[in-house]
Amino acid sequence: MSRTNRLQGRTLAAAADLSVDEQRYLYRKTRELKLAWTSGGNLTPFRISDPELSVYLMFLEDSTRTKESFRNAAKFHDVMLNVFDASSSSFRKSESLIDTVKMLFGYGRRSIFIMRTKMEGVCRALDEQLGEYADRIGRDRPVFINAGDGRHEHPTQEFLDEFTFLEQRGWDDSHIHVALIGDLHHGRTVHSKADGLNIFRSVTVDLVAPEELALPASYKSRMEGNGFEIREWTSIEEYLGSGDISDCWYFTRLQLERMGDEVRERESELRRAVTFRQRWLNELPGNTRFFHPLPRHREKPVIPSFLDATSLNGWDGQSINGY
Fold it and tell me: Cβ contacts of residue 272 below 8 Å, gap of 6+?
């Protein structure tokens, strides 16, 4: 793929695949796009408009927000959109993933694959194998974008989140104090923050989760290595009692489908520890905003629906930014 800029043609497997300067550039351009979109301005300069570019949505794991954001993005950019339905393909018959992607790659001149899988590291592996294959046959290398891989990372959600945090702060990147609350062990959007929060020059992270849902040591170490100040609590109630509360709360749902039976048996107890209650409203800083990658749990959301119409609601704007 010919390069008109440093980002074109590159695989995105983890948040750190873009440098801090590249991420800041991405947020500046996104800010320009959002301003043009909301004001009815000319969006043509932001569109790829390349009918030779094939975009494949390969969601081998269920998704709502992420899949629809990429579907709308492909339509916005006027490229060839292909939605791979694993449930109705030979993939259900143990078809090889590498063979499947190689076959689809052969159908177009230039290809981007948006991958959502339970297999961690799949984008990096496909980038290496299909890249070598493309080189051998003299074709442009395919691009792979990680839309969530197992318990690893979710870099595109992370870029959406950081853009939203910057927007909330009036584009001041000098410091952020953020509370990460919920299932930090399985939540890949939280894992991506170990590098994504680097766009802020000073970072304080409050980890709020029971021991069973705590952030894995590897991501905590990466945060510390990046110079973040890390503090920990086992529940929201304990956190509120500390007296030094963030005005930026980022919640994640309990990912029961990734937990063992022993942890699932304690679901009610674990959920209580990370679910916000109405009686705590007066204990929050006046400018506090709550965020969540969405959708929330239909019956037991960690951000209850009584908060939807309050000033705490930052998640709806966050969701819109996914466009």
Answer: 235
Distance, in Å, from the CA atom of 318 to the CA atom of 160, rounded to the nearest integer, reads 7
* Token code pair at residue 272: 């209580």
3-class DSSP assignment, residue 110: strand
Token representation of residue 295:
């959708």
Three-state SS across 40-78?
Answer: CCCCHHHCCCCCCEEEEEEECCCCCHHHHHHHHHHHHCC
Tell me which residue of 78, 77, 79, 128 sits closest to 101, measured CA to CA: 128
HSE at residue 146, side-chain half, CA atoms within 13 A, is 32
For 212, counting Cβ atoms within 10 Å of its Cβ (0-12 exposed, 13-18 middle, 19+ buried), the class is: middle
How are strands ordered across the β-sheet holding 176-182?
229-233, 203-208, 176-182, 248-252, 289-291
Q: What is the pLDDT of residues 169-193, one digit of tens each?
A: 999 999 999 999 999 998 889 999 9
**Cβ atoms of residues 118 and 150 within 8 Å:** yes
Round to whole Å and give the CA distance between 211 and 219: 15
Confirm whether pTM is higher than 0.85: yes
Q: Return the structure tokens found at 146.
A: 């990680």
